[in-house]
Write a structure and sequence with these properties.
The chain is α/β, with parallel strands linked by helices and about 375 residues long. The chain contains 17 helices and 12 strands. The strands form 2 sheets. Strands 1-2-6-5-4-3-7-8-9 form a 9-stranded mixed beta sheet, sandwiched between helices. Strands 10-12-11 form a 3-stranded antiparallel beta sheet. InterPro entries: DprA, DprA_WH, DrpA_SLOG, RuvA_2-like, WH-like_DNA-bd_sf.
């Protein structure tokens, strides 16, 4: 006897059946197994004759191979396949317009119903952006909030890593099959998330990294969460897609402001202009979401502040730097230093974590 999930898999892989058609069929027949047991006459009352023919066609060899692969994957510990009809399906995803038919889960399924906040931002994040993501994830984790993100480079990875470091919980929503690690360098991070949190995907096993799948998976990051925090984003960032989806789903949108001169702050400033809440601390988010009954960590009230430079007396060069990016040639004029000396001192300060060099010959202070 075939497992129930097989019919969901078959429906998902029937050519011509998209999310809207699948919802119409499920509304009419209840379960996928009933769809495939229906007659041509019953099906053509809902879909076109061509699609009815596709639904009644024999199961393909490729689908049978995928089913065998899926069954073998499910035999491994902490591997789960949740269908839209399962009690374990997250209630928050049932609220969005297009919930996935299937969710592949590695790790703790209980986190799918936990209080969570999406934390997203630029893949090519600045040093300060990575610090901000980690800072917020740390204090939200201490307050008992699960951190959801997309396991991408930059802001996503920093949020996941910080949540795990402070014994918090985290969900990675990936845009590939859950058995594919992307980017590959996140192999250890993916294992840690699967061991202590959970990794989920709506895509079948073996699905590679396809560009169009990543914007689509963003609706699940926001859908699982009560709100989304955008840490750092350029004007055309994919993170803005997540923020837009969050707003459309009725979720709260939060954004961290930055320098008016920083390209990676443009997206956040745009969101704030559109009504996103400007945040400076984890407490801002906890208060907006009325999460007063969580166990707030001591850092939740702390306002985001630069790192400390107390280890060394501030050099004359450091005193000439601001938190806004400064062109290297302008810095040379301010200090009266020649280029070689200036670059040597900046390198020393950068290695100490006190400054950050940015594209375009810009430098800014971090402490």
């Amino acid at each position: 006897m075939l497992p129930d999930w097989f019919y969901w898999l078959r429906l998902q892989h029937t050519k011509g059946v998209g999310p809207e058609t699948a919802r119409r069929l499920l509304a009419a027949f209840g379960l996928p197994s009933h769809i495939f047991a229906a007659s041509t006459t019953q099906l053509t009352a809902i879909v076109s004759p061509k699609l009815a023919e596709a639904l009644l066609a024999p199961v393909s060899a490729s689908l049978l191979r995928l089913a065998e692969q899926t069954d073998a994957w499910l035999q491994q510990p902490s591997h789960h396949l949740i269908t839209l009809a399962d009690a374990a399906y997250p209630a928050t995803l049932l609220e969005i317009p297009d919930p996935p038919l299937l969710l592949y889960v590695k790790g703790r399924t209980d986190l799918l119903s936990a209080r969570s906040l999406g934390v997203v931002g630029s893949r090519n994040a600045s040093v300060q952006g990575v610090r901000n993501a980690g800072w917020f994830a740390e204090h939200l984790s201490q307050a008992g909030i699960c951190i959801s993100s997309g396991m991408a480079a930059g802001i996503d990875a920093a949020a996941h890593e910080s949540a795990l470091a402070y014994r918090g919980s985290t969900i990675a929503v990936v845009g590939t099959g859950v058995d594919i690690i992307y980017p590959a360098r996140h192999k250890n991070l993916e294992k840690s998330i699967a061991d202590k949190g959970c990794v989920i995907s709506e895509y079948s096993l073996g699905t590679p990294a396809i560009a169009g799948n990543f914007p689509r998976r963003n609706r699940l990051i926001s859908g699982l969460s009560a709100g989304v925090l955008v840490v750092e984003a350029a004007a055309q960032s994919g993170s803005l897609i997540t923020a837009r989806l969050a707003a459309e789903q009725g979720r709260e949108v939060f954004a961290i402001p930055g320098s008016i001169h920083s390209p990676l702050a443009k997206g956040c400033h745009q969101l704030i202009k559109q009504g996103a809440k400007l945040v400076e601390s984890a407490q801002d988010i906890l208060e907006e979401l009325a999460w007063f009954d969580v166990t707030a960590g001591s850092g939740a009230h702390a306002v985001l502040s630069p790192a400390s430079c107390d280890s060394e007396p501030a050099s004359a060069l450091l005193q000439q730097l601001a938190y806004d990016p400064v062109p290297l040639d302008e810095l040379g004029v301010r200090t009266g230093m020649d280029l070689a000396s200036l670059q040597a001192q900046l390198l020393e300060l950068e290695l100490s974590g006190m400054v950050e060099t940015l594209p375009g010959g810009l430098v800014r202070r971090l402490c």
